[in-house]
Amino acid sequence: MTDQVQIQAAVEAVDSLDVLINNAGVALYDDLSDRAALEQSLAVNLFGPWGVTQAFLPLLTESRGGDRQQRVHDGARPVAAHAGLCGLQGGPRST
User: Fold this and answer.
1) Of 44, 48, 53, the residue nearest 74 (C-alpha)
2) Does the pTM of the predicted model rise above 0.70?
C-alpha cells in the first residue's frame, strides 16, 4: 500500500490494533538501470511499509501492542532490488 489516502482510510477503519504485519512486496525482474522500475520497487518494498507503520503507530502505542512484523522473503534477485528490504531491516539481513 503506497497511496497515502488509502493508508489513512485504512487507519480510520480500525478502532484498535495490537499487531501490524507488513506482508506485501513486489519483485521486479526488469532492468534495474531503469529508474522507473527502481522507484516502483522502493515505493512498494520500502516506502509503503514505512508509511503504513507510521500511520498505524499511534494505534499500536495506544493498545500497548507495538508489535510490527516485517518478514522478508526474496529469492535470487539483483542486489539493487534488495535496497527497499534492507532499508526496512536496518541492513543487509532478513528475518
Assistant:
1) 44
2) no
